[in-house]
Structure formats: structure tokens, C-alpha cells
Amino acid sequence: MRSLCQMGAYDSAKVVFDCMRSDGHLPDSSIVAFLVSSYTQVGKFDLAKKFLAEAQRDKVGLSIFVYNKLLDELVRWNMVDEAVCLFREHMELHSHPDTFTFNILIRGLCRMGEVDQAFVFFNDMGSFGCSPDAVTYNTLINGLCRVNEVNRGHELLKEVRTRGEPKPDVVTYTSLILGYCKLGKMYDASVLFDEMINSGIKPNAITFNVLIDGFGKAGDMLSALSMYEKMLFLGYFPDVVTFTSLIDGYCRTGQVNRGLKLWHEMSARNVGPNVYTYSVLINGLSKENRMHEARDLLRQLKCSDIVPKPFMYNPVIDLFCKAGNVDEANEIVAEMEEKKCKLDKVTFTILIIGHCMKGRMFEAISIFNKMLSIGCAPDTITVNSLISCLLKAGMPNEAFHIKQTVSQDLDLFVPSLKRTIPVGTNMDIPMAV
């Protein structure tokens, strides 16, 4: 059976297993454990559960490790309900769950946002002779913060501190600090950070990055920079997340030049940018109409290994279209396609309006048709803009054809469009976004 599983012949292994049982040769716990583990790793959960059920029927003793392995894989595959059922149907009666068992279930439920259900298992731990550990509390606190119940998470931390065991660690505090930062409650995040330091718990790079990002998003760049300097003082190396958070903060507060200075510091420190570093700096430059500098960043992106997203290109394409330079906008689109970056609805809408404003109506129609051909659903802004421009250009037949195409071909995408496109009126042209 081991050889068959290693060869991937799982059906044959099951046949051998059934033959053993029918011949009166009961498999021992090591064989069942191996089969459950093997079938679990390849996602054959139903068969793995059958092995467990048959082993229980044959009174084959199995270690909790076998059950935990199956539970862990179910949770990893986001089959949390199945994991809960496995526990209720098999483990409550036929095994002795341990703390790791409960941690797996609590982790899966918290990941699914079912925090209250996770607390049901947390409260049941004592009845099985299990005690929560640091992982249990960290998972619950992180789960509460993910559903924005940060105050409840903080209360749980206070409970842990009062009990004295298990001791909270950097993960506990960082989860809560992140929760407060996401809610914009930077004072509470700072108080927690100080409490962590005073408790003798050292922050890690993630803690600093979370706080730097939180202060940056709150527009408090003095505090963000102070946290960055503290990070350096304690010997932590800033990474791409650190720099991206700082650049984003400076761009949000209109200090794009300081963001650019950090961009060059990244290079000096040999820290490579990621998708979001490019995006925040391009957005910042675009908001200040510095389209040529933004364009230079796109040229650098072209030479990188980064797989880009359309939101990185759209602000620059929009700037060139509004400046009347649709040829340069088209060049950027060609670079997008060369980098295997699909145009999205915003890209197409910007291009259609840009070509219309230059009087290049047939190119605008061609772009619209391309949009449909790749399955990108236009919205009312896209369609109304094109029809309005065609009518103003004295092309009612083409406008009618666009409306007819929408009515016939786009029911699956935008069924409301047929009711919102009046061809007989001269509509205003919306601003490209």
C-alpha cells in the first residue's frame, strides 16, 4: 500500500486495504495513519475519513496526530465546515483532542470570520482537559481584529495578562496594534506599543511596519518618521513594506518630493520596489500632473520583473489623454500588453474618451469593440460617453449601432444599460477617471 500511494495509485491502495479487511487481516495503526496522511495530502478527504471510520469500527487505536493532520489539511483547503463535522462526528467520541486540535479549528473559523463559533470551541477546551496556549489567544485576538472587534481583542489581552499564563508575545501585540491602525486609532496603537516595550517584549520589523503604515495613512508623517528612525536605531533593516508605507504617507500629504527621495534611498539600500511602491508613487506624481516623471517610472517598470496591474498605468494614461497626447497613451497600453497586463474597465473608458476628445471616433469605436471582445464589461459611463461623442461628431448611425450592440450582446454584463442609453439626446461627456 505504501508503494502504491507513493506511485499515486490511490484507488489500487484502497482495493488492497479492503482485501486485507475482508480476509480478516486488520491493519494496524501505522498503516491507517499512513493512508489517512497520504490521501489527505492529495485532497482525497472522503476516502481519508472512510479509513478513519473503518479503523474506529475495527477498534484500531489511532493517535491524535492522525486526526490533527486531517483537520489541518481540511482547514488549509478552506473546508472548515467539514473540519468541524469531523470533530463532532469522530473526535469527540473516539479520540482525545489536544490543544493543537482546538487551535486548528479556531484558526479555520477565525479565518472565515466565524469568531463567535471559534469562541465556542475555546470555551469547550477545558471539558476535554485542554488549556489554551499563546497560539490560541493570538489566533482569537487576530480573528477579532480582522472583523474590527479590536476592543474585544484588547479585553482578551487584558485577561491573559491578569492570568499570567500564557504570556502575550510580539504576535499578540502586533495583531492588536494592526487592528487599531486599520481603524485609524493611532493613539490606542501607540499606547499598546509603549505597553509592549514596558513589558519587556521587543517589537519586530512587522510591528514597526504596521505603525509606520498606520501613521502614514493618518497623515501623521512626523510620527511615521519617528517610528522609522526608532526601527533603524534598534537595528532592524527597513524592507519594501517600510519604504512603500513611508512613500505612500508622503504622497497622501502632498510631499511627493520626499517620497521620491525615499525611492532613491531604497535603491541605495538595495531594496527593490514592488507593485504597490510603483503604484503609490505614480499616483502621487499623477495627482500633481507630473506626467513625464510618472511616465519615467513606467519605463523603469517595463525593464523590471514585476508583473504589473492596470491601476498602475491608468493615472498616467489618463493624464496623457487629457493632455491630448493619445499616441503616448497608446504607447503605454502597448507596454501594458507586452507585460501581460490586461486592460480593465477604467483603462478602456479613459482611452475611449481620450480618442473621442481628439476626434478619432473610429479608433474609439475600435477600442470599444476590443473591450467587448476580451469580455470586459463596460458600464453606463463608458457607453454613454461614446454615444454622446458620436452624436456630437455627427455620427448617429454609429451611435445607434453601439446602442444596438449593447442591447443585443451585453445582457449578461450590464442588463440595465438598454434602459439608460437615450440615442436621441445630446448627452454630456463625463470626465475620465
Structural description of this entry:
Pfam families: PPR (PF01535), PPR_2 (PF13041). PPR repeats lie at residues 98-132, 133-167, 169-203, 204-238, 239-273, 274-308, 309-343, 344-378. This is Pentatricopeptide repeat-containing protein. The structure is a single chain. 71% of the residues lie in helices and 0% in strands. The protein has a domain at 344-433. It has 433 residues and is mainly α. It has helices at 2-6, 10-22, 29-41, 45-57, 64-76, 80-94, 99-111, 115-124, 134-146, 150-163, 170-182, 186-198, 205-217, 221-233, 240-252, 256-268, 275-287, 291-302, 310-322, 326-338, 345-357, 361-373, 380-392, 396-409, 417-420. The protein is globular. Residues 415-433 have low confidence and may be disordered. It starts with a helix and ends in a 13-residue tail after the last helix. The protein has 25 helices and no strands. Helix 13 packs parallel to helix 15 (240-252).
- Average pLDDT over all residues: 87
- Given the C-alpha coordinates, what overall shape results? globular
Assembly type: single chain
What class would the helix/strand composition place it in? Answer: mainly alpha
Pick out the low-confidence regions: 415-433
Radius of gyration: 29 Å
| Total helical elements | 25
